[in-house]
Amino acid sequence: MRGELDARDLLFPEAGTETAEGAYKDNVLSRYVNRVVRAVIGRVAEEHTGGHTGGPLRVLEVGAGVGGTSAELVPELAGHRVDYLFTDLSRFFLTRAAERFADHPWVRYGLFDINADYRDQGYEPNSFEVVLCANVLHNAHDAGAVLDRFRELLVPGGWLVFIETTREHVQIMSSMEFLMSPRDYDDVRRGRDRTFITREEWLDLLAGAGAETLACLPEPADPLAPLGQCVVAARFPADREHVDLAELRAFLAERLPEYMIPSHIQVVDELPLTENGKIDRNTLATLLPRAAGEAAPAGEEPRDDLERRLAALWAELLGLPRVGRDQDFFTLGGDSLLVTRLAGRVREELPEAGNFYWDSLVRQLVNQPTVAALAAHLRQAREDRDHGLTRTHASSLVRLSEGEGTPRVLVHDGTGTLTPYRALTAELAGTPLFGLAIDDAERYLELDPDTAAETLAGSYARLLLKEGVTRVRVVGYCMGGLIATELARQLTESGAVVEDLTVISSSRFPYRITDELMLEYGFAQACGVDPVRLGFPGGDLARALRAVQESSPGLVREGALAALAADPDPGLAEVGRRFAALALPPRPERLAALARELGQPPERVELAHRVFRQSFAAVTHYDPEPYAGDITFLRQSGVTNVVPTLQDDMTGFWQELCLGRLTVIDVAGDHFSCLDQERAPGVARLITGGPA
Fold this sequence. Notes:
Elements: H1 7-11, H2 18-24, H3 28-51, E1 57-62, H4 68-77, E2 82-88, H5 92-100, E3 107-111, E4 128-134, H6 143-153, E5 154-165, H7 170-173, H8 199-208, E6 212-217, E7 229-235, H9 245-255, H10 281-286, H11 305-318, H12 336-349, H13 358-367, H14 371-386, E8 397-401, E9 408-411, H15 422-427, E10 433-436, H16 441-445, H17 452-466, E11 471-477, H18 479-493, E12 497-504, E13 512-513, H19 516-526, H20 542-551, E14 555-556, H21 570-582, H22 587-598, H23 602-621, E15 631-636, H24 646-657, E16 662-667, H25 680-688
Parallel strand pairs: 1-2, 1-4, 2-3, 4-5, 9-10, 9-11, 11-12, 12-15, 13-14, 15-16
Antiparallel strand pairs: 5-7, 6-7, 8-10
Helix pairs in contact: 3-4, 11-12, 11-14, 12-13, 17-18, 22-23
């Protein structure tokens, strides 16, 4: 378990599912629990068909994945009236399931997230007789809350049947567990550094949710029990009247004129009440149906045959009627699993992509996830081949959105990508929008850190002028703020008009860091991973950073934090011991641990780390000239561990640099969260001058 290979590539090589199916279906324990599920739900189907003259047995399978359990159950139900909804968090699994169960038209397919409000996903309460979960409930952030939502989804007397690992399990922990997002839980696992809920804890949780557990197999004394996996069948009480909506509609139709019959009827367990005991009509309004995954505006039509073929592939895989050339694959519902399938389909079905390796297409799609960008990349590669060139890097300039008015340019941060702007880009859709990203990481790593910002800005200015951009609005986050300022200066000197310059949570770094572990700490934060999960100390590092700079002002030397282990101050000594322990394994092993947290191949994370270190060096070496124009500085309000005085340091830097009018506006969040999904709308309004 050295972390040298990505779990996705091992379990789903080139987007195939055969390996995962073999691992999670074709073994003794899986066959046992799947047969128990088949027997239980088969019996429920028999009783439903025999004793209920209404509609079909409605089954919701949650987290169906490769369909190991479905493959056993669907044929068993073929002789009954059944409406079977096969769901997963990713569309990656849905298309393969649709092919497998094509002979069973009563099987439908959809997305479902156990950790989200089911109403927001297009589902209604009292909609299913059976909910089935196979090895998915340990992904629940709060298992009790998920059980409560299942109770609402089920009719009175409904069944919850699930397969779950009930102890730390080597097979799961060394494979599928690497695909889970790192986080703590809000249930019995909180703060206990474990993933799975025990058998006894599940029984208690089910009782707390009001369910009666009718089977929990294998029994503790069974020879299979030590393997640590159970199948549980529980039934919620029939303490409410079962309402058949078809019968209710027929009843109303006999007694009311058509215009008085509600267009939508929903069965709820109870009506919401205000504190005064009256019906809460505002809450009732929130119960109205909301379509799952409502389509975003379709964007600009594809411009040529290549873009049309790409857009058709995207639409098919995403389950959308159409896709615009400038729409973001991930914003439309794509994910890291589905992008691997898209890369495979592009490579197989488009002659223009036949010479590309599958993993290079995956990287291209992750970095520039639009039809227009991929088409441009493929066209450029074809032109390069026609001229005998082997380099196939796309342009650093990416068109993100079309619209009227002065174009706006987003400048990449220290990762070299536009990833931090993803939520902001969605808010700025419909306006003329470009992005600037590093197109050749190796070439970037060769730049002199002392002049990297100026060099990049010069090349970006030439790209924009070549594109015919003579009036522009420039935006930069983090290191991108420094490059954006240089870009604005060089564009102005070339005769272009910079209408406004906005920098977001950006500054020259106030001190140099050569301590590799401290750089890895910052890199983990930039990747969205809590460094504590990697073994770093929690809490505020400000005191430790001040302590190491007492002996070397303006510099955090290599090994300085680990050396605090000998400090007489107990708090500083504990920080030092944690850093000293992390220094024992070599850096490749530490980065491999981060790669597992991110679910990315180690070689990709290693390259990203090199880019981050180069960017960090560039930021600390940056020595800019004063800027003669106006600057709007969006200053994050939260504290950042690496630089606890960042707000004051940033403000002083821009006050000294800006010769024009400096407008400072505080925005919510810290350096790493100020552009997230929650805060992006407010930032977009500040950038565009819209209403606050």
